UniProtKB/TrEMBL annotation:
Role: Catalyzes the reduction of dTDP-6-deoxy-L-lyxo-4-hexulose to yield dTDP-L-rhamnose.
Family: Belongs to the dTDP-4-dehydrorhamnose reductase family.
Stretches assigned to the RmlD-like substrate binding domain: 1-286
The EC number(s) this enzyme carries: 1.1.1.133
UniProt keyword terms in alphabetical order: NADP, Oxidoreductase
Catalysed reactions, semicolon-separated: dTDP-beta-L-rhamnose + NADP(+) = dTDP-4-dehydro-beta-L-rhamnose + NADPH + H(+)
Protein name as catalogued: dTDP-4-dehydrorhamnose reductase
Pathway, per record: Carbohydrate biosynthesis; dTDP-L-rhamnose biosynthesis
Length: 287
């Protein structure tokens, strides 16, 4: 089975590469922006023709949430036109598309975890372009899985966990917002789940296409996330909880974006680790 991975140098792409040797029956084809630019449909067709993938995991994305507010065309091109191109090329080659989306498609006004069927209402350009990408895939190719996730971090690339560790090495106090509530997701756990979906399709003809939520278990604020990083690493720092109003950013973020994971657990038998346990694993890999 051939699985083509886009955006392979990003944190999810690197996380897939990190666990790939556990899947000896899969031939992985890793492509970065240079080899396969998802905004260039002809480029995608050439790569698909060469490798004839059974699955394409699209980890490529424009993920600079604040910068997207001033680069909406670029964000739209990568997050909406890119997935549309992939859906069309996947249809041409009968390839199953596994795409990643985000909790930022929701407005954050819910008080209970978001279901896959809840109505999206993005408050940022990034969230809107990711939603546009989902819609483009749904319109163009039915053989797709869209996995919505949240607060992704890992030992790879840039993310909140690594930013906190860097800031702690540079200063002795830090303020982090405590009124945005969600769930951190270890990108390696996400990678495992994507491959579980793919291998389930292969071995059980288990093609239950559509949207799925996935994050680690548990609920916290960014302040709790930061405090736990420092606690687990034994770092002493003066950490202050602050409201979002005190840390204005160009992009609005949902105040609450916990995802309900009943569907993915039921359909694919996924067992999900608590976020604190997964954080320990990721921090240990940094040593
Ligand atoms: N990070 C989060 O907190 C988070 C939360 C929820 C959902 N997600 C979603 O999870 C997925 C993976 O995110 P991530 O954290 O792994 O992102 P990431 O680290 O930013 O990686 C994205 C990769 O896509 C590449 N890329 C950009 N434009 C491309 C193009 N036109 N063609 C091919 N590759 C291109 C980037 O290359 P360059 O670096 O060279 O631009 C980068 O290697 C994304 O769909 C993201 O929206 C992320």
């Amino acid at each position: 089975m051939v699985v083509l991975v886009t955006g392979a140098n990003g944190q999810l792409g690197q996380s897939i590469q990190f666990i790939a040797n556990k899947y000896p029956n899969i031939e992985f084809v890793y492509t970065d922006f240079q080899e396969m630019d998802i905004t260039n449909i002809e480029n995608c067709k050439v790569v698909f023709a060469k490798h004839q993938p059974h699955f394409c995991i699209n980890t490529a994305a424009y993920t600079a949430v604040d910068k997207a507010e001033s680069e909406s065309d670029k964000a739209h091109l990568i997050n909406a036109v890119g997935p549309e191109n992939l859906a069309k090329v996947c249809k041409e080659f009968d390839t199953i598309l596994v795409h990643i989306s985000t909790d930022f498609i929701f407005d954050g006004t819910s008080k209970v975890p978001y279901l896959e069927t809840d109505v999206p209402n993005p408050k940022s350009i990034y969230g809107q372009t990711k939603l546009d990408g989902e819609i483009a895939i749904q319109k163009n190719w039915e053989k797709h899985f869209i996995v919505r996730t949240s607060w992704v971090y890992s030992q790879f690339a840039n993310n909140f966990m690594k930013t906190m560790l860097r800031l702690a090495s540079e200063r002795d106090n830090l303020s982090v917002v405590n009124d945005q509530i969600g769930t951190p997701t270890n990108a390696v756990d996400l990678a495992e789940v994507l491959l579980k979906i793919i291998t389930s399709c292969q071995t059980e003809s288990h093609e239950v296409f559509g949207i799925y939520n996935f994050s680690n278990e548990g609920v916290c604020s960014w302040y709790d996330f930061a405090a736990t990083i420092f606690h687990q690493k034994g770092i002493e720092i003066d950490l202050k909880p602050i409201p979002t109003d005190s840390y204005p950013t160009p992009a609005k973020r949902p105040a609450y974006s916990v995802l309900d994971k009943k569907k993915i657990k039921k359909v694919f038998g996924v067992e999900i680790k608590d976020w604190k346990e997964s954080l320990t694993v990721s921090l240990n890999h940094l040593n």
